[in-house]
Design goal:
Blueprint (H helix, E strand, L loop, with lengths): L1 E4 L10 E6 L3 E6 L10 E2 L11 E5 L7 H14 L4 E7 H5 L9 E7 L23 H8 L3 H9 L5 E6 L5 H8 L2 E5 L4 H13 L10 E3 L7 E3 L5 H4 L6 H5 L27 H14 L3 E5 L20 H7 L3 E5 L4 H6 L5 E4 L3 H8 L5 E3 L6 H10 L3 E3 L12 H12 L3 H19 L7 H14 L2
Parallel strand pairs: 1-12, 1-14, 4-7, 5-6, 5-8, 6-7, 8-9, 12-13, 14-15, 15-16
Antiparallel strand pairs: 2-3, 2-9, 10-11
Helix pairs in contact: 6-13, 9-14
Amino acid sequence: MVRHHHFVTKSSNSSEISVQCSGSGSISQPTPPNNAIPSVGLSVMAAEEAESLHVVLFPFLARGHIPAFLRLAALLHELRPGITVTLVSTARLLASLSLPDTTPPIRLHALPFAPADHGLPPGAESLADIHVHQFIAFFQASESLRPAFEGFVSGLRSPVCIIADALFAWTADVDRTRGAFHAVFLPGGAFGNAVFFSVWEHLPHTLAAAGDEFPLPDFPSVVLHRTQIPRYMLAATGADPWTALLPPGHLLLPQDRRGPGQHRPRTRNSINADQMTQLALGLEASGRPFLWVLRPPLGIDATDGFKPEWLPAGFEERTAKANRGLLVRGWAPQVRILAHPSTGALLSHCGWNSILESLCHGVPLIGWPLGAEQFFNAMLVAEWGVCVEVARGNLESSAVASGAVAETVGTVMGGTAKGDEMRRNAAVIARAMAAAWEGRRGSSAASLEGFLRCVEMS
């Protein structure tokens, strides 16, 4: 089965921990499969704070960011059963969580947030609730959480460690005021983020000598193509709104005092209507069975539902009649699908969570990166020999032909030498990921243990 993945779904069973400790270096390791993580339960905030370490987790206001923080909470409880872990977010986001009533418990703390006060729709408490043109206003509005967050942290009596989303860099100032330990959580991959920030730093595509391909000054061996540069970077002039939000040369560091220009832009991960038609025709022509989780095309509100005219006439009926296609509107259990032995590949936008979800099950990838660091993630997994890129981007100029889709699906899923090699490589990576969490000597387990010791000695 092939599943097309339009946007970052972080209901994954693995995510990368990439945290920078204040003065202590960094950790960048994949978290384990679900069966290696203890269940996370919910408890009412206790009246008295324990004397043990209190870890405060603060994900950005995006539903896809929260599961990675919950998995981190479970791992922290596994390594340090006595610590207190509190997840902080808005009331609406916290109320949307479905947590098993098991131990170890995790505490929840809601912060007041009034998006309408910032020109946003009432109730817009996550990126999923707004359109792309409202992203900048949303990032700026999220800074209104600061006073309530400061008040919460200042009332904690235990030794405190704040682990905040990279989009909440201002929490480092709260850390200094409170005397707490501070770390930045990056759910994405180390390579993809390093290249992304390097491109922002140097804007190499704007240099006079730059053609369609150009090396990165920080990483000369990394050669990029202009089609791998996100739209807002291509348009960067130094005076545009995205540049004002995250100026080139200003990286996101926990020790930086930079005020409002501290956020990394995100893009909505959907393909345009023409691309959707070509993808459908390509899947049908491939002759391979597929499962496609449908999202409306780029620019259409996901809450408006999916319209039949966005697919070729008769496509759904033909593929269903041939018992080769299953279309899912809305959410699908990606991890369960990837774990099924019939799943032969994942057609993904190359978000890091989806990459790790796929590879931990030994499933190779068909890449269609759409924005941000996804282009660079696709480069990495292609170099690992587990991904073939079928298309790139969702601009009107980003063409994809149905024939290319059919050919790529056949290469990866058919009995080709390339497909066989990709499956072998994916199986090797899956074993390495599992070994990283075997006991406390696994590389990822040892890295997280080292991080906790860094916190405890601070």
